[in-house]
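Box 3.1 A note on notation
Throughout this textbook, protein chains are presented in two layers. The first layer is the amino acid sequence; the second is a C-alpha cell string describing backbone geometry. Keep the layers aligned when reading.
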Amino acid sequence: MTDQSTSTQNGAVTLGQAFQEYLDSLKPEARVRHGAYVRKYVEFAGHDLWISSLTGSHVEHYRESQIQATDPQAPERVAALKDWFQFLKKRSYTTANLGVYVRVKKGGNSRSSANSHSAQVRASDETVQMTAEGIEALRTELEELNAQRPQIVKAIEEAREDKDFRENSPLEAAREALAFNEQRRREIETALKRAVIADQQTTDVSAVGSTICVTRLDNESTNTWKLVGPREANAREQKISVESPVGKALLGRRPGDVVTVEAPSGDLEFRIDDVQQS
C-alpha cells in the first residue's frame, strides 16, 4: 500500500518505500553502482508490492527471467540484488535473506532461452497506460540524462589522464555513472515506446489518472490517492499503481462503493468518497 502511515500501522512496507530508504542509505558511488539494477527489480515486482509477500520462488522467477548467464553485467546485477536483499533483512522487512535465491545458472538449454527471449519480446510490445503528466516526466528525465552524458564522458577522459589505475576512484565512479546513465536512458526509451495516454474520463468512474478520496472504515482515516500506471507510482506523492492491490481494488469504482483489500495484517475496507478526473 502506498500510503506511508497506513502501511506502518499495519506493519507492512512496500517495495517502493523500502527502495527509497535503500537509496538514501547508500553513499553516492554505491547509489550509482547499485541503484539502476535494484530499481529494475522493483519496477518488475511492483512498487506497491508488500515486502512481506515476497518469497524465495518470487526472487528465483525474477532471476530466471531477467538475468542470463550470458549477460556481461550479470555479476554486477547479482551483487546489487544481494546487497538489496541483505538491506531488507537488516531492516527486518524480511525474516530471511532472500539474496540466497539470486544466483545465475551456467549454460542453460536453448529452448528455455528461446522461450525467455520470446516472452521478453512480447512484454516489450505491450502498451502501458500512463497519465500525460507521467509521460512528460519521463521525457524530461530523458532530456536531462542526454544532457549529462557529455559531461560524464569528459569526466572519464580527464580521469584517464591519471596513469595509476589501481586506485583511480574518480575513473571508476565516472564509468559507473556512464553505465547508469545509459541503462536508465534505455529503460525510459523503452517505456516511452510502450506508453499511451490513458483515455480521459468524463464520468465519476475511477480510471488511470483519477484522483480518489477514500475512507478506511475500521478507523475512519481518510486518504487521497491518484491512480497511475506502474512506472508512475510514487508513495511520497500519493500516487498508487493500478497494478497494486489497492489500485486494482479502486479501479472502475464510483463514489459510495466499498472495496476490500487483502493486507498482511488482515483485510481492509475502504469507502470511495469522491472521484475526480484529471
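Residues 132-160 form the longest helix (29 residues). The chain has three domains: 1-125, 132-197, 211-276.
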